């Protein structure tokens, strides 16, 4: 094993180390951006997430609901009211992954706020349905399912919005979409925290 390690060229070792450092820095920038969004500081979030996108434009989170750096950057731009940049970032996210339902949701909200009602409603509807499907799939997954939206709060909100979509005013649909987007992002952290706590408790019982 030691011989194999010694046979790796110095340049390759340097590349491996640098790649690891860059990956760690990107993850840190994205997390700081998420924290800023969750605490109502979208302009601060833009700075962190733009840095992350420049460091690694292909970065995606490792959470159960995976989002790219472009999804988060698009949301940050959306929340500061820079809709042209939000649209560009979200369309970039969707060009890389057409099934990114969070990006789809925020693209719909961006279009609604930009005055494109027809496309905005369509994309928002598709995003909400995708999130609902993702939560249902996670909730049915053995071992981790119990942690995801256990009270059905998020999915009930989505179902109410979908059933009344054509009846909702654009402003009401925007409010629901924004609330769902925030709830899903917070749910990711809640699940990770509760799951870690339960693992710790089980370990303590052994």
Tell me about this structure.
It is globular, with a radius of gyration of 19 Å. It has 206 residues and is mainly alpha-helical. It has 9 helices and no strands. It starts with a helix and ends with a helix.
Shape: globular
Strand content: under 5%
Largest sheet, strands/sense/barrel: none
Radius of gyration: 19 Å
Distance between the termini: 35 Å
Helix/strand/pairing category: mainly alpha
Sequence of secondary-structure elements: HHHHHHHHH
Q: Into which percent range does the helicity of residues fall? A: over 70%
List keywords for this structure.
single chain, 206 residues, mainly alpha, 0% strand, globular, disordered N terminus
Topology at a glance:
Blueprint: H1 2-7, H2 10-38, H3 42-55, H4 69-80, H5 83-96, H6 101-113, H7 117-139, H8 153-163, H9 170-205
Helix pairs in contact: 2-3, 2-4, 3-4, 4-5, 4-6, 5-6, 6-7, 6-9, 7-8, 7-9, 8-9
Outline:
The chain has 206 residues and is an all-alpha fold. The protein has helices spanning 2-7, 10-38, 42-55, 69-80, 83-96, 101-113, 117-139, 153-163, 170-205. The longest helix is centred in the last third of the chain and has 36 residues, at 170-205.
């Amino acid at each position: 094993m030691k011989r194999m390690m010694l046979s790796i060229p110095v340049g390759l070792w340097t590349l491996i180390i640098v790649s690891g450092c860059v990956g760690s820095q990107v993850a840190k920038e994205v997390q700081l951006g998420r924290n800023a969004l969750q605490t109502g500081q979208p302009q601060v979030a833009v700075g962190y997430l733009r840095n992350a996108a420049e460091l690694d434009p292909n970065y995606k989170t490792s959470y159960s609901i995976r989002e790219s750096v472009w999804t988060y950057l698009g949301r940050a731009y959306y929340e500061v009211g820079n809709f042209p940049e939000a649209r560009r970032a979200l369309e970039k996210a969707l060009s890389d992954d057409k099934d990114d339902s969070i990006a789809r949701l925020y693209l719909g909200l961006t279009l609604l706020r930009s005055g494109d009602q027809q496309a905005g409603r369509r994309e928002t509807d598709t995003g909400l349905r995708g999130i609902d499907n993702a939560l249902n799939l996670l909730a049915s997954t053995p071992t981790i399912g119990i942690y995801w939206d256990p009270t059905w709060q998020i999915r009930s909100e989505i179902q109410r919005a979908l059933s009344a979509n054509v009846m909702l005013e654009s402003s009401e649909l925007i409010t629901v979409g924004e609330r769902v987007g925030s709830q899903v992002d917070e749910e990711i952290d809640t699940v990770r925290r509760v799951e870690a706590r339960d693992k710790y408790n089980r370990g303590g019982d052994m």
